[in-house]
Amino acid sequence: MDTNDLIKALAADNRRPGLSMNAAWKGAAAGAILLAGAVFFAMLGPRPDFATAVETVRFLFKFVVTIALALTAFAAMRVASWPEGELRRLLPYLCIAPLLVLAGVILELIVLPSGTWEARLIGTNSVLCLTFIPLIGLSPLGLFLLALRHGAPSRPALSGALAGLAAGGIAATFYAAHCPDDSPLFIATWYTIAILGLSLIGSVAGRWVARW
């Protein structure tokens, strides 16, 4: 038996009988969205002017970024759950959300007077953002780590970090519906810090939960 066959055999032995990885990921994704939604609606809910805000480009842009992050990080996490998974192919996709934010920031800096940049960056809800994105994302992160444990990731810390990014993308998508700060400068700063915090938690937890 060569090394690749041995790795595949060990991965197969590590999976729980009766539940395929595909089913595990579908269940984790559905559960993550439901739990994040439950926490969001229990603690925050949509902003009062949601119906009006949804007609503005800046408000919708937030969802484009967060959903792109959630989808690409989830795809990368699934690949990372296999010992032979090649993440290099997914790296360009993981750059989509950061590049969207960068483009939004550049456009914002071009359009708005420099005197307004600081106020846009600081916003009005930075503390709430740093608090609730991690809170909403903890349950999805836990489900994703359990799904990783069902697989056989060769780099559990990296897999856990990707789980944190995916959970952060889901959490930020829900939080964006409440957040009154729609500036790309705000998103680039506070959303990023909050999501990276979840990624760090996932990386640390992944070393223990997702190893095999």
Q: Gap between N and C termini, in Å?
A: 20 Å
Using only C-alpha atoms, the radius of gyration works out to 18 Å
In terms of quaternary structure, the protein is single chain
Q: What is the chain-wise order of helices and strands?
A: HHHHHHHHHH
> How many DSSP-defined strands?
0
Q: β content, as a range? A: under 5%
Low-confidence stretches: none
- Globally, the shape reads globular
Q: Largest sheet, described in full?
A: none
Mean of residue pLDDT? Answer: 88
Given helix and strand content, the structural type is mainly alpha
* Residues in helix, %: over 70%
Helix count equals 10
Q: How many separate domains make up the residues? A: 1
Can you give keywords for this protein?
single chain; 212 residues; mainly alpha; 10 helices
Question: Could you characterize what this model shows?
Answer:
It is a single chain. With 212 residues, the protein is mostly helical. It has one domain. Helix content is 76%, strand content 0%. The protein has helices at 3-14, 21-43, 50-53, 57-80, 91-94, 96-111, 117-122, 126-150, 156-176, 184-209. The longest helix has 26 residues, at 184-209. The two termini are 20 Å apart. The relative contact order is 0.18. The mean pLDDT is 88.
